[in-house]
């Protein structure tokens, strides 16, 4: 029997993306199809989404959805079966999905994503003629209220699954919004939406779901501790029998160095020499001097979580050791400024582009020698998976999904030909310096370096295994609810 799945998410590649969440929600439906799961994904009607819809069918109309008119449109886009909440008052805005052009959160985010969640719950309750899901899978705080609305409504019996992509983002709002959420009085409480005297969207989802997943096995264990639990470790430990760590995969059609139209020269593990053309293109793009020293790359949000403050402090050391660096990212304005200042101070050795550019991220992976990911915590991480696939050696903190996917180049792993990267203790400046030193030494030993590249490129981080785990979990939850 084919499982009918409703996925609810605030972004989806290739229509709208701010990070790895979009890559996952864009790739997982296709991978699930091979396991008997037919997914439809509900997303907000941002301008970039509406622009790609083409011929869409109106399947539901709201005269008043949290104070604004809205419709649900159905369309097939880029192989995805989409349901789009078209509410221009909420989503047709200049800026990002969550904030304005200045980087400030929209003041009505509580209402915008309550509307998305209410629409998801309505679909679960049978709002679409001729289609009702067997299971509902929601992603992060922006969609988490879907399962709270279901729990306190007529769709309570339909299995509900919440995936935590990053526990640091929880959707916390003041208690005053409760009256506007349209929930019954019994939803207010520690076993409902109340969270430290306010409202917690993610918390409401976690307490209401039939299963909770994280995007790596190690992160599933880390969030049970006060250090990484972000105030929710007690709740999570109380529901540990419902907790599953399922590693993210990558879309191997999009991220494939042997057939990537976004890079100057395609290559595979047996033709690593062809990477030289991409390396030269990367040098030109970032104004780097041309020599044999390794090019470190960073493709990241520039935030404290990602360890970018540690990276800023390590830049002089990296250059002093002879390395070069190309950075693509945006985030904290102080960190952006510090990176730009370092590029000005070390012209020809450091190049920085502020912002995000999908094609450029492919060039960085295809032309860079080593990717730096000094995160303080990392639920899964996708850039290290792309790097492994492209023969760009990951240099990562030993946390979360980074610890699950990279094999450190210790003596035993190098001797066995199993090493794929360099790992170091998170949050430790000296450990980061030491990792940079290790990369410089390893890069000089070309046979060892190429063996690491090839080992990483051989690793299978497609969605094959993870999609099978999700499909098995869906079936077990459906059977449990029967």
From TrEMBL:
The keyword Transferase applies. Residues 284-442 form the Glycosyl transferase family domain. InterPro entries: Glyco_trans_1 (IPR001296), GS/SS (IPR011835), Starch_synth_cat_dom (IPR013534). Keywords: Glycogen biosynthesis, Glycosyltransferase, Transferase. Residues 4-237 form the Starch synthase catalytic domain. It is an enzyme of class 2 (transferase). Coiled coil: none annotated. Pathway: Glycan biosynthesis; glycogen biosynthesis. Its EC number is 2.4.1.21. It holds the Pfam family Glyco_transf_5. Signal peptide: none annotated. It catalyses: [(1->4)-alpha-D-glucosyl](n) + ADP-alpha-D-glucose = [(1->4)-alpha-D-glucosyl](n+1) + ADP + H(+). Gene3D superfamilies: Glycogen Phosphorylase B (3.40.50.2000). GO terms for molecular function: alpha-1,4-glucan glucosyltransferase (ADP-glucose donor) activity. The keyword Ligase does not apply. ADP-alpha-D-glucose binds at residue 17. Synthesizes alpha-1,4-glucan chains using ADP-glucose. HAMAP family: Glycogen_synth (MF_00484). Belongs to the glycosyltransferase 1 family. Bacterial/plant glycogen synthase subfamily. This is Glycogen synthase. It comes from Sphingobium cyanobacteriorum.
